[in-house]
Amino acid sequence: MSGACVGGLGYSASLGPISGLVLCPMAAASLVGLSSLSCGAGDRRFSSRRYCWNQKSCLKISASSSERLSQFAAEKFTPKVESLLDSVKWDSKGLAVAIAQNVDTGAILMQGFANREALALTIASQKATFYSRSRSSLWTKGETSMNFINVHDIFLDCDRDSIIYLGKPVGPTCHTGAETCYYSSVYDLLDEPESKQDQLASTTLYSLEATISQRKLEIDSLPNRKPSWTKKLFLDEQLLCSKVREEAGELVQTLLENEDKTRAASEMADLLYHAMVLLKLKDVKMEEVLEVLRKRFSQSGIEEKNSRKSPSK
Amino acid sequence: MSGACVGGLGYSASLGPISGLVLCPMAAASLVGLSSLSCGAGDRRFSSRRYCWNQKSCLKISASSSERLSQFAAEKFTPKVESLLDSVKWDSKGLAVAIAQNVDTGAILMQGFANREALALTIASQKATFYSRSRSSLWTKGETSMNFINVHDIFLDCDRDSIIYLGKPVGPTCHTGAETCYYSSVYDLLDEPESKQDQLASTTLYSLEATISQRKLEIDSLPNRKPSWTKKLFLDEQLLCSKVREEAGELVQTLLENEDKTRAASEMADLLYHAMVLLKLKDVKMEEVLEVLRKRFSQSGIEEKNSRKSPSK
């Protein structure tokens, strides 16, 4: 692969010693064109976390210029990255486990392996990049499908032999079209080996969201089934609205009346659940809500409020 | 290790062919004593997800009897598990990547490797168990520290060569005492290599929670710093309470007045943020709220409501 542009994204993989990092002009332009390297507010996370190494370099790299990107990689970025790459405990094959995780939902999207070059390229391009053991080559997730994972941060574990690419997926991550690659529950497989009903590995908030969605489907498909509180809320918007207001009031009461923290957690759970039923009626996913919150990170609440256009806010 | 009870938890690791699964009586009793194998409502997740293979087996295993556990493992469990283990694509060393994830927060706790025996034992014991490459032996996370990871579900990826242990950690997972093993941000390291300020890899909701906590700390430690909306809310409980009520009302309004879904996502973000500021004043973490929701999974909302003791609900 030395020196040639390879892969769907067409970057050079000849990063051997990282000082040799060369991004083909076409590839660099593609990367910048995909805005993976921009430093707009939307790409930052809460508080002081940075996605560029300093404001100057950040501005440089956000310009749509392959020349500038190469310059950035070669001059600004390389020495520190080399040192960091040296600190990773690569295994006997020069690899470390790399896990891609959705920055908003926490869903584990996929797991692959990274070598020095894959990690270096991910740091530089902010596209999750792996080393394919079967093809013995680098590959950027999405280079064929365009379903990139835009990396917002990268973490190393305590032993420095495991990596998290914390990012936002563009479309489904799995080659099967599933949102993530983890959709086979061992306990489901043991219970019903023939079952074709895939269920994504999901954490509490998203399991709840899936259950709420299921209840909505059942209203039409299984009208005679045992009624549930969720279905009742779906069928009576006035009840739902009054419950959301009521639960907010009860949460507030835990503060005003100095109720215990167990009560506060319980009231917040009530509020969250009822609000999520309402969101389902509006066809809004929790992931969209979290995306809104993430995009507000880079401003103070006061600045954010002042910047709103609506006079009612 | 053949046949002997090993490790802090003292189970036998002689699982060679899985039909040889033997749990030492002492170990089995310990496991049951730790209630990892109970099937109470609190251990289940939403909807139809199961933690036992069928209700009968589940009841069997929840009894505090090592004999029954061994019987369950040997008679009921083994043939299906063998077939499942055969379907995993173990690498040339007989290993697959195993990632432990917090079922409530989605945080990736740690990553290790599993062999057939480690996965079989995790399935049976519901304690995250790995194969240590350095020690060439099985180890259950927590067997020394007692910081077990109680596994609620296990997922395989599309290629069947990567595993998620979705579970609830008992205490910090990292041997350093950190909540997870991932606390070194590559971009932080590149920016300030000497920085000792560890920051956990956290997704949007928990980054927001950390920012809110930071603002609260700053009220005392940095009183002259630029005020933020969050700080203002902390200092004025009446304002905070009226904002929580107001945002709930605005979320409701998006449904009643048929506002667009972008508006609904934005109002939910507002509500969530203000409610989280209130939770901080009550010293309640979002993880505790999610735990409450998870523990309500196994009941319908109506049953759950009817089961409450408080007459006000």
Tell me about this structure.
The structure is a homodimer of 313-residue chains. Chain A is α+β, with helices and mostly antiparallel strands and 313 residues long. Chain A has 11 helices and 9 strands. In chain A, strands 4-3-8-7 form a 4-stranded mixed beta sheet, covered by helices on one side. In chain A, strands 1-2 form a two-stranded antiparallel sheet. In chain A, strands 5-6 form a two-stranded antiparallel ribbon. In chain A, strand 7 and strand 8 (162-169) form a beta hairpin. In chain A, helix 3 (66-87) packs across helix 4 and helix 7 packs across helix 8 (237-256). Chain A is globular. At the A-B interface, helix 3, strand 3, strand 4, strand 7 and strand 8 of A face helix 3, strand 3, strand 4, strand 7 and strand 8 of B. Strand 9 of chain A pairs antiparallel with strand 7 (149-157) of chain B, so a sheet runs across the interface. Chains A, B: Keywords: Amino-acid biosynthesis, ATP-binding, Histidine biosynthesis, Hydrolase, Membrane, Multifunctional enzyme, Nucleotide-binding, Transmembrane, Transmembrane helix. Chains A, B: This is Histidine biosynthesis bifunctional protein hisIE. Chains A, B: Pfam families: PRA-CH, PRA-PH.
